[in-house]
Amino acid sequence: MPNRSVLVYDGDCAFCTTSVNCLVRWLRPNCAVTAWQFADLGALGVTQQRAEHELLYISPAGTVYGGAQAVAKLLLSAGGVWAWPGGLLTLPPVRWIAHGAYRLIATNRDRLPGGSPACALPAGRRPAG
Q1: I need a labelling partner for 28 at 20 to 30 A (CA). Which of 21, 34, 62, 85 fits?
Q2: Are 57 and 73 in contact (CB under 8 A)?
Q3: Sheet holding 32-35: strands in order across?
Q4: CA-CA distance, 82 to 80, in Å (whole number)?
Q5: pTM confidence score
Q6: CB neighbour list of residue 50: distance below 8 Å, 6 or more residues apart
């Protein structure tokens, strides 16, 4: 297990990569950030299938948060003013709404700015690049 939290995203998806790069630049979170394609997923305690499905935030203790809750943990790790919306995302009913919004965005990421048709394909079916 890492001694620092890790944020894992889909490095093959232009929308995901752009989003994570912007968040890291704005938030300066206290975690390592890596594409799942370059991570030791087994050591992090996650499967490739889950990493393809959603953004992941793994705590040093090995707790895995996915999707909107990964975003919440990222905001909380940034501290300061960002901790407020991060904390809010962990509370019902905001948590439920955030989950639905995250799934809607993740399902349609190939249609969003910066997305590409490859973003919609499972990793095994993406064109080699």
Answers
A1: 62
A2: yes
A3: 32-35, 6-9, 56-58, 64-66
A4: 5
A5: 0.87
A6: 56, 64, 66
| DSSP sequence for the chain | --SS-EEEE-TT-HHHHHHHHHHHHHH--SSEEEEGGGS-HHHHT--HHHHHHS-EEE-TT--EEETHHHHHHHHHHH-GGGHHHHHHTTSTTHHHHHHHHHHHHHHTGGGSTT--GGGGS-GGGSPP-
For the record, the structure tokens of 122 come out as: 């499972």
Both tokens assigned to 22:
């912007």
* Token pair for 16: 């995901």
- CB contact burial 9-26 (16+ within 10 A = b; e otherwise): bbebbbbbbebbeebeee
Q: What are the backbone angles phi and psi of residue 28, rounded to the nearest 5°?
A: 50, 60
Q: Which residues contact 92 (CB under 8 A, 6 or more apart)?
A: none
